[in-house]
Design goal:
This is Small GTP-binding protein. Pfam families: HydF_dimer, HydF_tetramer, MMR_HSR1. It comes from Proteiniphilum saccharofermentans. One of its GO terms (biological process) is tRNA methylation. GO terms for molecular function: GTP binding. By secondary structure, the protein is α/β, with parallel strands linked by helices. It has 3 domains: 127 residues, P-loop containing nucleotide triphosphate hydrolases (Rossmann fold); 80 residues, 3-Layer(aba) Sandwich (Rossmann fold); 122 residues, Rossmann fold (3-Layer(aba) Sandwich), CATH 3.40.50.11410. Helices cover 35% and strands 17% of the residues. The strands form 4 sheets. A 4-stranded parallel beta sheet has the order 7-6-8-9, with helices on both faces. Strands 11-10-12-13 form a 4-stranded parallel beta sheet, with helices on both faces. A 3-stranded parallel beta sheet has the order 3-4-5, sandwiched between helices. The radius of gyration is 24 Å and the shape is globular. It starts with 20 loop residues before the first strand and ends in a 16-residue tail after the last helix. The C terminus is likely disordered.
């Protein structure tokens, strides 16, 4: 209903939905969203248990949830989901579907209210007006942090400032387009009424010859060393990855965790967390460049484990001496914070691709000092 398209295979038979089905959609006054349709948690048997685990994994990753019921069916399975929502601090609402056939009964409302104060929407997918009612209800429960409209650079620049963006074109660059962090940063600079100049690292000298002094320079972390050497020290410099770390991650934990690079020892295990799935190349920043540079910088023999996407984390998290998270441009703030929280809780240092590269090139303070004056994000968890 929310997409206006047939995305999932549906039927009257239980167990039709297996793996979670995702669909990207733009919802007015909410913005870009990913809708995830999960299997129910009332399946039996080995396959049923796998479906249930997949559905429960989704709960830990979403910003809000719709608990869909129909035919006035509300029982133990729904109560279990309510408990999962509460445990994972996921705001939610109830949607009683097919009210054109069977409207929600007072006894069902009473049963729900015994376990939850969440809003209940009685609707039908064949009634267009009900779609607007459901979206309005969603807007009431989505937490402000889920919108992720906090500006990347709004507190660092003023209107009419010149912002220099350095974007290398190498084997990691997608064909014919720019990567998401670059696109989002350009848009954020335009939203803040800045003049944007985009160059490759090799064109920095040509730009400087124009006599224009940028208020802020932002580079791809992979060319931090080249850009830092090319730009005068008085020009504030950071990276796309570090800006995303501030907007989405536990920035304080990143700042504290990065210097642990200098404390690494022979045989230490490093965990690299990639939030997206992509084809790797000889220039891959996470799988190739960072491991090579870390071992050169520390002079230590290090072991690296890579987890891509939102795959399950290793169970022995305390065996890692350092966790290095990518920029996280493809996941939500909550997903990134939840992913790092177990390590922070266990005292394992965490950092970020951009911060690691800044530290290795000796410009960590330069790349982060302008961001420390007013951190964008407060920790999601009280004990952080």
């Amino acid at each position: 209903m929310l997409t206006g398209q047939d995305i999932s295979i549906v039927s009257n038979f239980p167990g039709t939905t297996t793996d979670p089905v995702k669909k990207s959609v733009e919802i007015f006054n909410i913005g870009p969203a990913i809708l995830i349709d999960t299997a129910g948690i009332d399946d039996l048997g080995e396959i049923g248990n796998k479906k249930i685990r997949k559905s429960q994994e989704v709960i830990r990753k979403v910003d809000c949830a719709i608990l869909l019921i129909a035919g006035n069916q509300f029982g133990d399975y729904e109560v279990q989901l309510i408990e999962q929502f509460k445990k994972n601090e996921v705001p939610y609402l109830f949607a009683h579907n097919k009210n054109d056939i069977d409207k929600i009964a007072a006894i069902t409302v009473t049963a729900i209210k015994q376990h939850s104060n969440a809003e209940i929407i009685d609707f039908s997918t064949i009634n267009p007006a009900d779609k607007d009612r459901l979206i309005t209800a969603l807007k009431r429960i989505i937490p402000a942090t889920a919108f992720q409209r906090s500006s990347l650079i709004g507190d660092l620049v003023r209107p009419k400032d010149v912002v220099l963006l350095v974007t290398p074109i190498d084997s990691e660059a997608p064909e014919g387009r720019m990567i998401l962090p670059q696109n989002q940063t350009i848009r954020d600079a335009l939203d803040n009424q800045c003049v944007t100049v985009v160059v490759r690292e090799s064109e920095i000298p040509d730009f400087l010859q124009l006599g224009i002094k940028p208020a802020l320079a932002i580079t791809d972390s992979s060319v931090f060393g080249i850009v830092a050497e090319a730009l005068p020290e008085e020009i504030p410099l950071t990276s796309f990855s570090i800006l995303f770390a501030r907007m989405k991650g536990n920035f304080t934990a990143f700042l504290e965790g990065t210097p642990h690079i200098s404390r690494l020892k022979d045989g230490d295990h490093i965990l690299l967390l990639e939030s997206c799935t992509h084809q790797t190349s000889c220039d891959d920043i996470g799988r190739v460049k960072i491991p090579k540079l870390l071992q050169q910088f520390t002079g230590k023999r290090l072991h690296f484990t890579v987890v891509s996407g939102l795959s399950e984390l290793p169970s022995n998290i305390r065996n890692f001496s350092l966790v290095i998270q990518c920029g996280g441009c493809m996941i939500t703030r909550k997903q990134l914070l939840n992913r790092l929280h177990p390590f922070i809780q266990q005292g394992v240092p965490v950092t970020n691709y951009g911060m690691v590269l800044a530290y290795i090139h000796g410009i960590f303070r330069r790349a982060t000092k302008m961001l420390e004056k007013e951190p964008v994000n407060l920790p999601l968890f009280p004990d952080n």
